Amino acid sequence: MKTGFYLIAVVFAMSATVSAAAQSRHTGTSFSHEISAGYVRGIGTEKADGAFLEATVGHKLGRGLFIGAGTGAREWNYSVYPDKNSSFMLPIFGNIKYTVPFKSATRPFIDVRGGFLADITNAGVGRFIRPSIGVRYKGFGFSVGTEVMMCKYITETQTMTGEINALGNPVYSTSYSGTDRGKNSVFFSISYSF
Predict the structure, then answer these.
(1) What is the CA radius of gyration of the chain?
(2) CA torsion sign, 99 to 38 to 137 to 9?
(3) Which of 55, 60, 102, 172 could form a disulfide with 14 if both were Cys (CB 3.0 to 4.6 A apart)?
(4) Rounded-to-integer distance, Cα 101 and Cα 83, Å
(5) Which residues, in sequence order, are CB contacts of 14 under 8 Å at separation 6+?
(6) pLDDT in tens, the chain (194 residues)
(7) Beta bridge partners of 129
């Protein structure tokens, strides 16, 4: 139920991006907008597969350079806790992309995204970086790359103190600690810029 709500919120935000793109075309500004979707395959010890949907808005600087920021939604088939089988994350990131300014319809590009993310399902926060290379054909982009992500999760530990309270129940002391969990992955992404 929560995942459906978050996906609706992300789709709403992306539709606002599309509206802004339509307005910028009429005003002649050099803003650029991109919507991307992809599949992520985990590698290493913390394997996690999943999918993402992201929207990026930014400014074209000179020939081929783009600087922007974006947000999106991620669903991973991974969870820190054994009673959950997936994780829903919301990233907020910066984006730098350089597209080689060839005059042909097919142009290679280098893209780097990095920022922060919130694991809504497991109450974690983290950071990530995702470099990739790809090819743009007209407005469509096809890219492959790698992602390194590190999240911190809060863990609660209860320890019996050996004392008994007035009701005859054991007394526990509670402590909290942060646990870092890293994920390395490769991904494939399809995007559309307008």
Answers:
(1) 21
(2) negative
(3) 55
(4) 50
(5) 35, 53, 55
(6) 455 555 555 555 555 555 554 444 444 458 889 999 999 888 876 667 889 999 999 998 888 899 999 999 998 876 555 566 778 899 999 999 999 988 888 999 999 999 999 988 877 888 999 999 999 998 899 999 999 888 887 777 778 888 888 888 888 877 766 677 777 889 999 999 88
(7) 114, 148
Cα gap 104→176, rounded to integer Å = 57
Overall pTM surpassing 0.85 (yes/no): no
4 three-state secondary structure: helix
In the chain, the amino acid numbered 42 is G
Q: Any idea which residue has 């007035």 for tokens? A: 166
* CB-based contact 75:84 (threshold 8 Å): no
Three-state secondary-structure class, residue 124 = strand
CB burial of 55-91 (b: ≥16 within 10 Å; e: otherwise) equals bbbbebeeeeebebebbbbbbbebebeeeeeebbbbb
Residues comprising the chain, all counted: 194
Separation in Å, CA 152 to CA 6, 51, 81, 148: 21, 21, 13, 14
| C-alpha distance from residue 113 to each of 5, 71, 98, 117, 122 (Å) | 25, 11, 12, 12, 23
Helix, strand, coil abundance in the chain, percent, nearest 5: 15, 65, 20
